[in-house]
Predict the 3D structure of the following.
Amino acid sequence: MDGDNLWIGTYTGGVNVLNLQTGTFKVYRSYTDIPTSLDGTSSYAIFKDRSDRIWVASMNGINLYNREEDNFIRIKNLDAMTIDIDQDTKGNLWFSTQGKGLFKFHPEKQIWKNYVHNNTLPNTLANNQVNCCLIDSHGEIWAGTMNGLCKYNIEEDNFETIPLEIPSHNICSIIEDQHILWLTTTKGLVLYTGRRLPGIY
């Protein structure tokens, strides 16, 4: 939500903005000859940060809405589909991608960093298909991947895969409720309280 406007990402139909007061739609599309349009026709993640900036992720890259001009700034081509966005306590934006791991971006410093899985190195992401990212109420950063739940170690600047005895390690989404994490997986719902053997539903 942005005021009375509900931003809706679509598959191949651009971004639709519904004004809840008037019931009218405005559609933003991608045009190859207009560099201030979206960089792709599909969007699976839209996020408003703490500075009220609206970020739109396409199947290609990241776009920033320009409120003054009512158009978009194409920030970066990630060459991957982004399906989730969150912001940490330091202002970094985290982009979860399908196949390229996690991207961290600080808008003011204009610094990017990519976190990926590496079989030869410890403490990397469990998989490069990252389905979701959550910054919890304590500021901890969690990533749900196709092959497990990962937690960011801010001091070491790397990720630890959390050992869990669950039917499926394909974590689809994460939400927090009273400091407890709920994980949706391809084989049910998991209640994670920090124990190796969580509640399974």
